[in-house]
Design brief:
19% of the residues lie in helices and 15% in strands. The protein is α+β, with helices and mostly antiparallel strands.
Length: 865
C-alpha cells in the first residue's frame, strides 16, 4: 500500500523550510515575559544556565504526590535546534537500578496553543520509538512497550493483569492509539494499523511526522538515589520537528510559534491508584489522562523562522572555514540592521577559499575565512589577514553511566551515583584518539570476524571490543571500572571532507611517539594493533591527513528481521560520515551513528522481476535507550556547546598534563601559537606541547582582498569592525558570539580593526600591497610595521578580554549559502532562489548540513559549470 500523502499547506511549509535553512535563528525574538501561570523562580547557579532558565515544582496528583519534585530547564528563550540541560531534585529514586520500572521522568516537546487544553496531549512528539509496532527487545526490557508509546488500551494493572482503559480516557471506544495532531491540523489515525486490504484513506501515521531516528523524546530519565538527575534534551525548531514547526511565524504574528517542554513524572501507582508490586513496572502511555495530568510544562520560545534581513537588499559573500560559520550567521542580523547590506557565508575547503579570495576581478571573493594564511604569489592581488574567531577542534562525548550495583556488584559509590546520568568528564591520550580514528576496535567495524571472508582479518578480532574495555582508557578514566562489561559504544562521528581541523588533529596524534609507533603497526601494552587498512595512509608527507578516512574493507550480511537480506552492508552504511561539524555534534548528542544495518524487505526500489515486490534495503537501527548512550564525535567547540556536549581533556602519552577546551585552555593555546609564513599571522603547532595550552586551538582569520571594488571593500571593512567589537560578546542572542568560542584578546581585536581601516581605504597603501614573501625595500628597523599587522614574529598578548561569562548553547546554525556575483552585492531574491535550487529543502536535518561545500567559478560566457 502506498504511503498516504500529508496535506499541510505545501507552499507555506516549503517557504518555512527554506527560510529556516537559509537564515537559521537570526532575528531577535520579542518575548513579552514568561507565561503568567508558570512563573520562574531563581534558578540554581550552574554552568549551563542562562537568563531564561526556569525551575518549577511538580504537583499533587489524584493518587500520587510529586510536589517535592523540582525541575530546572537551562534555557527557555532564544532557542534553535540545540541541546538544553534539564535537571531535577526531590524525586523518588528510580527502581530497579538496572531498568525503568517505577519513579522516572518522561520528557517530550509539544506545540499546542494551550497546555491546559484537554487535547494538548495530541500535540506532543512522543511514541516514535514504538510506531508501527517496531519495538526493540531492549526497549521492551528496559521500559516496556506500553509506557513508550501512544496506546489507549495496551495497559497492565499493578499486578500485571490487563487493565483496560484509563477511567479518565475520553477518546471513542474504538480508538486504539492517542492520535497526533500536527501544527498544520493533520491528525493521525486512531487505529494501530489500517485493516488488511483496506483502501488508502489518506490519513497520516505518526511516522509521517517523526520517526524513531528523528524524535527527540526521552522515553525514560533516571532519578538517582539522592533524588536528583539530569539529561541533555534536544529541542527542535522548524522542519527539524515537522509536526511541531516551533518558531514558525504565522500570518499577522510578530513572534514565532511557542512550543512547550513537557515532563511527565511516573510514580508507583497505576491509573486506578493501586501500588505496583515490587516486581512490576509502570504501564501505560504518559499521554493517558491520569498520568498526563501530573505534567510539568515549560514554555519554549524559539528564534522565529524568517529572513534575518529585509528581502531586496544587497548581499556580500564570504567563503571558507566552517569554524567561523556559527559566528558569521549570528552576526548577520545585526550587520544588516537599518537597511545595511547582508553577508552570506559559503563553507568550502581551504584550497577553494584561497583560490576564491585570490581570483581576479569578478571571479573572486572579497573575504575568505581561513584556518591557515593565504600565501600569495608575486602576481596575486594584495591580501591582508584579520583575526576573526577563536574556536577549537574537540572530541565531544555523550556517555551515560551504566554503573548500577545490580549489574556491576563492585561498582564504587561514586560510580553508583552517576548511574544513568551523562558523564561530566573524559580524558584521552594521542594513542587512544588514534585507535578511534582508525576503527581499530571490534565494534568500530562492520565485521571483525577472522573466519568470515568479508571480515576485517585476525588483527581486529584480537583487539578489545571497544574503547570502553581498553586498559589504557580505563586506567585514565577509572569510572569505567564500574561500567557494565558489555556496554556498547558506537562508531565515533567523523566529519566528511578535507579540512585544516582534520590535519591539526592528525598532527597532534603523530607528534606523540607512542601513538606514532602504534600507527606504524607495533602493538601497545595489551597487544592491540592498528587496523591494517590504515598503516599506509596515516603518515603521508608527515604533515597529517587532511581528512578522516574510513578504510576498513569488511562487510556483513544483516540479521533476518523483516525479510532475508539480499546483500551485505559495509563501512558506508555501518558508520557514515557526518555532513558537517554541526551534524557530528548533533549525532553525538543522540549517540546515534545513523547505522543503516536493519534489513527491510519493503524498502528499496521495485523488484524488476516482481513488480509487486521491493528489492529491499537496510534502514536505520533504533537509537540507544536512555542510560545506554555512548557517543563520541569530532566537532568544534562552538558546535559542542550548542548541543550541550562535554568535551574530552587531551593528555600526554602518560595521561598527565591534561588540558580542557575551555576559555583558559584556548587563550593559552593562542599564546602558544607561532609566526606563520605570512607576517603577523599566527599558526598553531600541535606538535609543540605548552603547559596549560589546549593543543587543538584554532584561530581563524579573515583574508581580505585589497583590490576589490571600493563599495565591496567598504562593506567588508564594516564586517571586520563588527566582528572585532560587538561581535566578540559571548551570548545566545543574534549578533553575539555563540557559546563555545572565546573572545579575541585585545591585541588581536586591534589587529582586526587596523585591517578594517586599511581595507576601507580607496587606494591600497604600498605597505599593504607588499608581498610578505619578498624582501622589504628599506631597512625594516627604520620602518614601522604596517598598521594592519603586528610586528613580524611577535606573539600578541593573550590576556582575556573582560566581558560577560559564557552562557549555555543557543547559537544559530550556519546559513545555507549561495554563490553571488563575487565581491559585488546581489539581491535577496537571487539569494533565496539559489539556495532552493542548489541546496534543496531541509527535512529533519538542521541548517549547517545544507552549507554549500564547493565553489564554482563562472564560465567566460557567464554560465556556471
Amino acid at each position: 500500500m502506498s504511503r498516504p500523502s500529508i496535506r499541510p499547506s505545501t507552499r507555506r511549509r516549503v517557504v518555512a523550510a527554506v527560510v529556516a535553512a537559509l537564515v537559521a535563528p537570526l532575528a531577535l525574538l520579542a518575548v513579552g515575559g514568561l507565561d503568567a501561570r508558570q512563573p520562574a523562580v531563581a534558578a540554581v547557579p550552574g554552568d549551563r544556565l542562562t537568563d531564561s532558565a526556569m525551575t518549577q515544582s511538580g504537583r499533587r496528583g489524584q493518587y500520587e504526590d510529586f510536589s517535592d519534585l523540582r525541575v530546572t530547564v537551562s534555557q527557555t528563550r532564544d532557542l534553535v535546534t540545540q541541546g538544553i540541560e534539564i535537571s531535577w531534585t526531590g524525586g523518588r529514586p528510580t527502581a530497579p537500578e538496572s531498568a525503568y520500572g517505577r519513579n522516572y521522568l518522561q520528557i517530550m516537546q509539544c506545540w499546542g496553543p494551550d497546555p491546559d487544553a484537554p487535547d494538548f496531549r495530541e500535540t506532543c512528539q512522543f511514541g516514535g520509538l514504538t510506531d508501527k509496532g517496531e519495538v526493540s527487545e531492549e526497549l521492551e526490557l528496559q521500559v516496556g512497550v506500553s509506557a513508550s508509546g501512544r496506546s489507549v488500551d495496551f495497559n497492565l494493572d499493578a499486578n500485571g493483569n490487563p487493565a483496560g482503559r484509563d477511567p479518565a480516557e475520553r477518546l471513542p471506544a474504538d480508538a486504539q492509539v492517542i492520535p497526533f495532531r500536527s501544527s498544520d491540523g493533520d491528525r493521525t489515525r486512531m487505529k494501530d494499523f489500517p485493516p488488511a486490504g483496506a483502501p488508502d484513506d489518506g490519513v497520516p501515521d505518526v511516522e509521517d511526522f517523526f520517526r524513531r531516528d528523528e524524535t527527540n523524546e526521552v522515553v525514560a530519565a533516571r532519578i538517582g538515589p539522592d533524588g536528583t538527575g539530569r539529561t541533555i534534551f534536544e529541542v527542535q525548531r522548524g522542519s527539524d520537528a515537522k509536526g511541531l514547526n516551533c518558531g514558525e511565524v504565522l500570518a499577522g504574528a510578530t513572534a514565532g510559534r511557542r512550543c512547550w517542554l513537557v515532563v511527565v513524572p511516573r510514580g508507583e501507582r497505576d491509573f486506578h491508584g493501586t501500588a505496583y508490586q515490587s516486581t512490576r513496572r509502570a504501564s501505560g502511555s504518559p499521554l493517558l489522562p491520569s498520568y498526563f495530568a501530573n505534567r510539568i510544562v515549560f514554555p519554549l520560545d524559539f528564534e522565529p523562522i524568517r529572513p534575518p534581513c529585509p528581502l531586496g537588499g544587497d548581499v556580500f559573500d564570504t567563503v571558507g572555514s566552517e569554524l567561523v560559520a556559527p559566528a558569521a550567521v549570528s552576526w548577520q542580523a545585526s550587520l544588516c540592521s537599518g537597511g545595511q547590506a547582508a553577508f552570506s557565508h559559503t563553507v568550502t575547503t581551504e584550497v577553494t577559499a584561497d583560490a576564491a579570495v585570490l581570483a581576479p576581478g569578478a571571479e573572486g571573493r572579497g573575504v575568505a575565512y581561513v584556518d591557515e594564511p593565504v600565501v600569495r604569489e608575486e602576481t596575486d592581488p594584495a591580501i591582508v589577514h584579520a583575526p576573526i574567531t577563536i574556536n577549537a577542534a574537540v572530541i565531544a562525548f555523550q556517555i551515560e553511566a551504566r554503573t548500577s550495583r545490580s549489574e556491576v556488584p563492585d561498582s564504587t559509590p561514586d560510580a553508583q551515583r552517576l548511574n544513568g546520568q551523562p558523564l561530566p568528564e573524559l580524558r584521552l591520550t594521542p594513542r587512544l584518539v588514534a585507535k578511534l580514528l582508525t576503527q581499530s576496535y571490534q565494534q568500530d567495524v562492520p565485521n571483525p570476524s577472522p573466519e568470515d571472508p568479508q571480515g576485517s582479518g585476525p588483527d581486529i578480532a584480537k583487539n578489545p571490543r571497544s574503547i570502553r574495555v581498553d586498559d589504557e582508557f580505563v586506567k585514565l578514566n577509572p569510572v569505567f571500572e564500574s561500567f557494565f562489561p558489555t556496554s556498547r559504544h558506537y562508531p565515533i562521528q567523523l566529519p566528511d571532507g578535507e579540512s585544516v581541523l582534520a590535519r591539526r588533529l592528525w598532527q597532534w596524534v603523530l607528534a606523540d611517539e607512542a601513538a606514532r609507533k602504534w600507527l606504524s603497526g607495533l602493538p601497545d601494552g595489551q597487544n592491540m594493533r592498528v587496523n591494517p587498512a590504515y598503516v599506509p595512509l596515516v603518515f603521508g608527507d608527515g604533515q597529517g591527513l587532511s581528512r578522516f578516512p574510513k578504510e576498513d574493507p569488511s562487510c556483513r550480511t544483516g540479521e533476518v528481521t523483516n525479510g532475508v537480506p539480499k546483500f551485505p552492508y559495509c563501512m558506508p552504511g555501518f558508520a557514515p560520515w557526518a555532513e558537517s561539524l554541526e551534524v557530528a555534534a548533533r549525532q553525538t548528542l543522540r549517540s546515534d551513528a545513523r547505522q543503516r544495518i536493519v534489513w527491510d524487505e519493503t524498502a528499496g526500489g521495485v523488484d524488476p522481476e516482481n513488480p509487486l515486490a521491493r528489492l529491499g534495503d537496510y534502514k536505520a537501527a533504533p537509537p540507544p535507550l536512555p542510560g545506554r548512550k555512548f557517543g563520541l564525535g569530532i566537532t568544534d567547540a562552538a558546535s559542542a556547546a550548542r548541543y550541550g556536549l562535554a568535551t574530552a581533556s587531551l593528555c600526554d602519552a602518560e595521561g598527565e598534563n591534561c588540558v580542557r577546551a575551555d576559555t583558559a585552555g584556548l587563550l593559552a593555546g593562542v599564546g602558544a601559537m607561532e609566526p606563520s609564513a605570512v607576517d603577523g599571522v599566527l599558526q598553531a603547532n600541535p606538535s609543540k606541547s605548552v603547559p596549560g595550552a589546549y593543543p587543538l586551538t584554532m584561530l581563524t582569520y579573515a583574508a581580505a582582498n585589497l583590490e576589490r571594488s571600493e563599495p565591496a571593500r567598504r562593506e567588508y571593512a564594516r564586517l571586520l569592525r563588527y566582528a572585532a567589537t560587538e561581535g566578540q560578546t559571548i551570548g545566545s542572542k543574534p549578533g553575539q558570539l555563540p557559546p563555545g568560542y572565546v573572545p579575541l584578546p585585545e591585541s588581536l581585536r586591534n589587529q582586526t580593526l587596523a585591517v578594517a581601516a586599511e581595507l576601507a581605504k580607496s587606494t591600497p597603501s604600498p605597505a599593504a600591497t607588499t608581498d610578505p614573501a619578498q624582501p622589504p625595500g628599506p631597512d625594516p628597523a627604520s620602518v614601522p610595521p604596517p598598521a594592519s599587522t603586528p610586528a613580524p614574529g611577535v606573539t600578541p598578548s593573550v590576556a582575556p578580554t573582560p566581558g560577560p561569562t559564557p552562557t549555555p548553547p543557543g547559537s544559530p546554525a550556519p546559513v545555507a549559502a549561495t554563490t553571488p556575483t563575487p565581491g559585488e552585492p546581489v539581491g535577496w531574491l537571487r539569494f533565496l532562489l539559489l539556495a532552493v535550487l542548489g541546496v534543496g529543502v531541509a527535512s529533519g536535518i538542521s541548517g549547517p548540513t545544507m552549507l554549500t561545500l564547493g565553489y564554482r567559478r563562472p564560465r567566460p560566457t557567464g554560465t556556471e559549470s
